[in-house]
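Can you give me the bound-state structure? Components:
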Amino acid sequence: MAVDRLSLDIPDRSITVLVGPSGCGKTTTLRMINRMVEPSEGTILLDGQDIQQQPVNTLRRSMGYVIQNAGLFQHRTIVDNIATVPRMLGWGKDKARARARELMERVGLDGALAKRYPYQLSGGQQQRVGVARALAADPPVLLMDEPFSAVDPVVRKGLQDELLRIQAELGKTIVFVTHDIDEAVKLGTMVAVMRTGGHLAQFAPPAELLSDPADAFVEDFLGADRGIRRLSFFPATGLELLTGPIVAVDATAEQVAARDTAGAPYLLVTDQEGRPLGWSEPGELTAGNIRQAELLPYGRPFVAGTDSLRSALDCAVLSPTGWAVAVDAEGRTAGVVSQQTIGEAIRGAHAERRASDRAAERPQAGKDSRVAR
Amino acid sequence: MNGFFDIPSDLQHSWLGLVGLHLREALLPVLAGLVVSLPLAQLCVRFRWLYPPVLWVTTVLYAIPSLAFFVLLIDYTGQTELTVMIPLTVYSLVVLVPAIVDGVRSVPQETLAAATAMGFGPVRRYLQVQLPIAVPAIIAGLRVATVSSISLVSVGTLIGNQGALGNLLNDANIYNRPELAVNAVLSMAALAILADGLLVGLRLLLTPWMPRRTRTKPKAGRPDPAVLALEDAAR
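Here's the bound-state model for the whole set.
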């Protein structure tokens, strides 16, 4: 039995990710929603209506479908591929093509590709066409079956970011199937972890999944570093940044001596614009003659306003001094922070999250699809 | 060569007349074979168990010598072109059925799944997705069937001069004019090459979506796919 007694409330206008090992029935579940697989028992409700009650092709045309390797029609041009469903819905050729071109722009495809054939596109571009094709008739529901599994990691990250951007603009109800837990945590508003036989192991927002896995199976599936990964849900905005141990490369001896090094055993040297150059012990600095080659590397800085505690911690771990460098959006140094301070911030964030969890029950997801068997 | 195109009067045709006759006798069976093969192949795709027996039957039919066919048919269709064309139609099936079945089966699973998910019914899916993608395979089959049909027509000479250009072979023998045999062979070879070339042209016309192997270097106006891939990665 592929999927057994699964009951799921998929919230409107958000991304619900079905994740699990191969053969857990996640694709079967997805295909039951557009009736490519018919359940032997049970009902699937869409906006309160049984999907069995409407003609199957009408149902399918009201749902976009994106598949691994895109599944484009190799004998049609890109623009005609995207215009497929609008044409079937009876749109005129010009209107359908105009819509297709608009969508190419939306998914980040160059309009010059419109008259090309699929073989002339890279895997990542084909996948973008697949997304555009699914969006063509503006369906309220988007079904995505491991859409980004077959492209390389760099392209995949780009496609994931693009999907989040498109979703922020369009607000579709997306059901997304993947076997990649990182992808699930990154994309999902809600994540359903499934185990073999189509049993639901846990259905929760990603942060909750990482902090409170329901059982050993989910915990194992999440991997060893779920504590670290969970930090990506905590912003680094609350970190107390020190500006004392920062000195410009052209500072005078008095300026160097006047630096407040009480909190930090090292000084961060920056260039005239404030971009970080490297660390040095205060005693080793000779004003007016700072040799950049002798500075200790600072690792990778994090952006103070937008990055998460995970990035901040990563920067601190990467830095040989154990101190992370925070920069602003332009790359100018905003301050420095120690591993110890980040650790305190993490503990504080955890305590705060626990308190807010107790205070407010998680808002219940709205109506929509219900898959049962 | 004196009298190369001087066709003996017993054939009742000029050289061009024979060429026309030859093309009709060779190509109509291929066309008929295609008309029979398309639904037959679709049945074989739809019901997988049907394919091996169909393949077996077409192969056995192909093994029947044309002379035996003529003996069987001559009671019903007489010494006519039809008696020549029926065996040729049957022979074409052995090439066309597998070509179409393989072509239709070569359509990738995800393309079919995508078509189904977009609300294509079985008929629309066959006509708008499977058949167009099978075109290269079908034309490859048609090329073999056409060329072999053009050469096979000549055996019709055995049943009352129904072999078009092939009749020249018999006349070369009885009138002791070897140039007529050379004419027959060269004309048939030329027709076969011409017909094959036209089919290749037809395929190029019908499948602009296929990678062209001859164009190894991208033209100046057309961005290199590798560059496009990099741009994509950089997004």
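A couple of observations. Residues 362-373 of chain A have pLDDT under 50 and may be disordered. DSSP finds 14 helices and 14 strands in chain A.
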